[in-house]
Design brief:
Blueprint lengths: L1 H15 L2 H18 L1 H8 L7 E2 L2 E6 L4 E2 L2 E2 H15 L3 E2 L2 E5 L19 E9 L11 E9 L4 H11 L2 H9 L14 E3 L7 H10 L4 H24 L2 H8 L2 H39 L8 H5 L3 H32 L3 H7 L1 H20 L2 H8 L5 H11 L4 H29 L8 H27 L1
Parallel strand pairs: 1-5, 2-6, 2-7, 8-9
Antiparallel strand pairs: 3-4, 7-8
Helix pairs in contact: 1-10, 2-10, 4-5, 8-10, 8-12, 8-14, 8-16, 10-12, 10-17, 12-16, 12-17, 14-15, 14-16, 15-16, 16-17, 17-18
Protein name: ABC transporter, permease protein
Pfam families: ABC2_membrane_3 (PF12698)
GO molecular function, one term: ABC-type transporter activity
Length: 460
């Protein structure tokens, strides 16, 4: 274990404590922060709303008891929305209609009925805890939004005020207390069944193939790192000295793990930079009159799928790099020098490129069946699972199955290649790749038999 730890630390130090790593990390970090700050940067240098005419009709149906005087949700929304859109420079011709009549509550068939308004905001109360209905603390405010073509900027401003209703209720119920711990109210956007969500699906399908690129780059980096490091030792015959003091199994694990830990550290740093940029962007956007610079507002209805997609992308990046690092380490052990390694790793790179191109083509063409096949093949799954998930062709269950298959395949490859690595790492066979693998298998079999005989004799 000490030898394994030492080899891993040695491999990490070679990569982490270098000027190249510091410079590249700083450059990429600045770029990531800059990209995540783009919405607020663009918003600060543009004024797209100046003079834009808003003449939508909005009906607010408020069936809560908060509809009078200073405790009037409807008036709070109308007054606040008008103030903001005027300040933003819109030509404000918005018509707000209000109702407290239960007969105006939208039915399940609302979108099939004839209505003049572009949006209906339905505000109501729900008892969330058992007890005396007189107690207002037992109730929460809920909101349903019915969108029949309202201006997106106007809807954004209305949503800003809707998010405050739960806190407003608490302030009305408890004037002496501050609602600091009350969370934002999240409106329910009722989907219009008569309008296809094809636009959003097309956006997701167009963006999803881009996820393959960073995963492909990470896998390629891991593959080259592990192969190059093994070849440096083998081509200089230093491997003979190392294997004399360290078991081949330990050496194999150390090479793979040191590269993987480095890649995980690199990923963590990039994610950290991205989170810093995202946080700064949301803070700046939150301090502006318009929240148009917020990523949540920009992403709109696809925002809920972004976080699980990013998590899946990180998981697939790590597992994909791991399975290809295992393959790369074994292939490097078969090579004699750097030129030989570049030659015999061609089949591995072809598999990776085939998976890469297949995933991009299938994602761009929305070929569902092909994406599903690629998602369950271990060598292509890391590249395809995030794409298929973001495109909506598989859910979390199917994605989890693909990841489990990938994990099992990784473990099996580790079990198969570990004894073969022991036989190939000190071999300088220069025959064809297939013949080298056959010879390695025979040698590994003999070594296993010799070890078994040695153990039996030692026991006796």
């Amino acid at each position: 274990m000490k030898k394994l730890k030492y080899l891993i630390q040695y491999g990490l130090k070679k990569r982490l404590f270098t000027k190249a790593f510091y410079i590249s990390t700083a450059v990429i970090g600045v770029l990531l922060i800059g990209i995540t700050l783009l919405p607020t940067i663009i918003l600060n240098f543009t004024d797209p709303n100046q003079g834009e005419l808003l003449e939508d009709e909005v009906l607010i149906v408020n069936t809560t008891t908060y509809d009078v005087g200073n405790a009037d949700f409807t008036n709070y929304i109308i007054t606040g929305t008008n103030a903001v859109i005027n300040q933003l420079g819109y030509d404000n011709q918005v018509s707000f209609l209000r109702s407290e009549d239960p007969l105006d509550v939208p039915s399940d068939n609302y979108y099939n009925e004839a209505h003049s308004e572009q949006a209906l905001i339905y505000i109501y109360r729900v008892q969330v805890r058992p007890g005396d209905p007189v107690n207002d603390d037992l109730f929460e405010v809920r909101v349903k939004v019915y969108n029949r073509g309202i201006n997106s900027g106007l809807l954004e401003v209305i949503q800003m005020h809707l998010s405050e209703l739960q806190r407003l209720k608490y302030k009305i119920d408890h004037p002496q207390l501050e609602p600091t711990l009350i969370q934002d109210l999240r409106p329910e956007f009722v989907v219009n069944p008569n309008i296809s969500d094809g636009v959003d699906q097309e956006i997701l399908a167009a963006l999803s193939p881009m996820l393959i690129i960073p995963i492909f780059i990470l896998i390629t980096i891991g593959l080259q790192f592990v192969g190059t490091e093994i070849m440096e030792e083998k081509s200089t015959k230093a491997i003979e000295i190392i294997i004399a003091s360290v078991p081949p199994r330990t050496h194999f694990f150390a090479k793979v793990l040191s590269v993987m830990i480095f890649l995980v550290i690199q990923l963590f740093i990039y994610v950290l930079f991205g989170m810093i940029g995202y946080g700064l962007n949301e803070i700046i956007a939150g301090g502006q009159v318009s929240s148009g610079g917020s990523w949540n507002m920009i992403l709109g209805v696809i925002a809920p799928i972004v976080l699980p997609t990013l998590i899946l992308t990180l998981i697939c990046s790590i597992l994909g790099a791991l399975i290809y690092c295992i393959i790369g380490a074994f292939v490097a052990s078969l090579a004699v020098n750097q030129e030989d390694y570049q030659s015999i790793q061609t089949p591995v790179m072809m598999i990776l490129l085939f998976s890469y191109m297949g995933g991009i083509i299938a994602g761009a063409s929305q070929f569902k069946e092909l994406l599903l096949i690629f998602a369950y093949v271990p060598f292509s799954a890391p590249l395809v699972i995030p794409v298929a998930f973001m495109s909506g062709y598989i859910g979390l269950v199917e994605a989890s199955i693909g990841i489990v298959i990938l994990l099992i395949s990784t473990v099996l490859l580790m079990m198969v290649f570990t004894p073969l690595y022991r036989a190939s790492i000190l071999s300088y066979d220069q025959s064809s790749l297939i013949k080298r693998i056959k010879n390695t298998y025979k040698t590994a079999k003999v070594l296993k038999q010799n070890q078994k005989m040695h153990e039996e004799n030692h026991i006796d």
